[in-house]
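Exercise 7. Given the components listed, write out the predicted structure of the assembled complex. Treat all entries as one system.
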Amino acid sequence: MQLVLDPDIICCVPGETTLTELDNIEALDRAYRSRLLRFVAYSTGDQDLAESIVQDCLLKAYNARASFRGDCAVYTWLAHIATNLIKDHQRSRKFQFWRTIQKTAPDLSEMSSLLPSSESSPESQILARERAQQVSAVLDTLSVNQRTIFLLRFIEEMDLQEICDATGMQISTVKTHLHRAVKAVRQKLGGKA
Amino acid sequence: MQPTHLTHLTDEQFTDLLLGTSPASVQAHLKACPQCAEEAARVSGAIGSFQQQTRLWAERRAASQPALTSQRQPIFEWLHRPAAWTTAGLAIALTVGISVSVHKSHQQPMHGQQQAAVSQHPVVKQQISAATIKADNELLSAIDGELRADESSSMSAYGLIPSAHGSHSRAPKRVSNE
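Answer.
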């Protein structure tokens, strides 16, 4: 399915214009690949698929850079493209089939070794790893929309308006998804909800 | 000591707290309720840990991938090189020349043998065919005679007379050379 990029969908809060960033694909790749990869990998739960989507996303953004008006952050625009690509993949039957048999979820145990050792004691690191794994486990139980919005808010630190721009949802819908996601995380981490 | 008159934070209040949009009343509650304060710290700490670990994972993963470049490698780049074309042409000419010469060298001694085989073949076929046809016809006549004798004996046992133009005539069809 062909993704149609409609710049009119995005009506962002005026932000810094970084058109030069979009003109240089190497700079675009350097600046946003890891952020996009994290977002897409945890949205889809599949790191191999995430790499493919991120690659597509950066190329689409680069090819459609003329349609970017510069009235929102580049990352918001990229997140919008990535969100559409994720939806595209999730709609396809091939994705549904292959996901069940060859899903390669991001490995949190691999991540634990990356924690800066100077920051905390080994006990704290183990605790932090366990908590992160709990959050990761909760994300698996959320719906696609809840997970996407949770990630955009708490991992990508986007504000609600930016999330609306990136997902094309109303702010009330975003708040509802966010509320449900937080409730699930709170329950998992031993809350009272 | 936890004040008993306070209800704990609702999910909406908790979400607002995490979003940083909680009103002053929620902040006041947190100061008075260590249970909610501890829970808020635990959840936000977990999200923070997850954020940090996923960032490090993504950075490492992204660094291991080939970077996108604007200088596209043209597809079939060698097509644009004259030297490559010359080499390819020479290679094709050489291959065709060798194969043609090998083919000719194999074909010449075989040619005479093939002609002889072709000229002998009809004769052999004709001899075998005539002998076989004659033997087959004799065999069929003999079988037919035996069958007629069997039919007439079994019918006469029941007092039946065989018709001259029976529908189940087993007259042998003579085999011809055609």
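Discussion: Chain A has ten helices and no strands. Chain A touches chain B through 49 residues (CB under 8 Å).
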